[in-house]
Amino acid sequence: QVQLVESGGGLVQAGGSLRLSCAASGSIFSGNAMGWYRQAPGKQRELVAEITSGGNPNYADSVKGRFTISRDNAKNTVYLQMNSLRPEDTAVYYCRLGPIVDGLSSYVYWGQGTQVTVSS
What we know:
The protein is an all-beta fold. Helices cover 0% and strands 55% of the residues.
């Protein structure tokens, strides 16, 4: 069973920075993609950034140049460095592991989420 535990959320003023962490239990971390998603009130969950098992990142256009995703396979941890935060970045941020392909099916694991609030 894989568990993902996020930390690092909080309240910050516009223009400030936060660093989110997601620690994964289990032995499947290094071989799988990791991602950060967010969900604001009344909106659908959206991709923020993802990183392949090989370390290649991909970002949503809205965060390019401001956010950086990284991973430390030795610590089973993925990070999201968020700079120049804006009020519209306010959301619950979720960590995702996968997708994991198992035969004809695939599945992902989600963390419990961490709140990020950016005040204007």
